[in-house]
Specification:
The termini are far apart. The chain has helices at about 5-30, 45-50, 60-75, 85-110, 110-135, 165-170. The radius of gyration is 24 Å and the shape is flat. By secondary structure, it is an all-alpha fold.
Length: about 170
């Protein structure tokens, strides 16, 4: 009769439990891949955007989702061997993503405090992009209209976009 040590049995039990856990997770994700994004009962924006009860918010959610996807794709860079240049290559899309998301808030948001904050985000993130590019010697892009200048935001015919240019210049 072969006796198995406690250590052997414990290792095998841990191995079986780990295998069962991985298998159960894989099975659950195969059934519903969106479940891997669930955090405390929340859904990511792209899944919420498909729900009909959020249809009024759909344009904002779509723009925000596009900004996030572009940012994540653009942040994937091939290392050059120059840490500073690689840092800037990853941070510029990160900052641009913040700008794009803030512009969506300016376009669709209603809360004046958040709209002012969004304007500040646009301005400061643009400044930081300029500083980073300048620091590594990149040629700076031509000056664009400031988001606080009249006509800088895209025009639209929706009711919340029909605000006067004065309300856009809250600073």
């Amino acid at each position: 009769m072969v006796l198995l040590s406690r250590s052997f049995i414990r290792k095998r039990a841990i191995s079986l439990a780990t295998t069962a856990s991985v298998a159960a997770t894989s099975f659950a994700l195969a059934q519903d891949p969106s479940r891997m994004y669930h955090v405390r009962g929340t859904l990511p924006v792209q899944y919420v955007a498909d729900r009909p009860n959020y249809s009024d918010e759909q344009p904002f959610l779509s723009e925000n989702d596009a900004a996030m996807n572009k940012m994540m794709a653009d942040m994937t860079v091939k290392p050059t061997g120059d840490v500073d240049r690689d840092f800037v290559a990853m941070m510029v899309p990160h900052h641009q993503g913040a700008i794009d998301m803030a512009q969506a808030e300016l376009k669709y948001g209603h809360n004046d405090q958040l709209r002012r904050l969004a304007q500040e985000i646009v301005v400061t993130q643009q400044q930081e992009i300029t500083v980073m590019r300048h620091a590594i010697g990149d040629e700076l892009p031509h000056a664009a209209a400031s988001p606080t200048q009249p006509g800088a935001m895209p025009s639209s015919t929706s009711s919340h976009d029909a605000r006067s240019h004065d309300s856009m210049n809250m600073k």
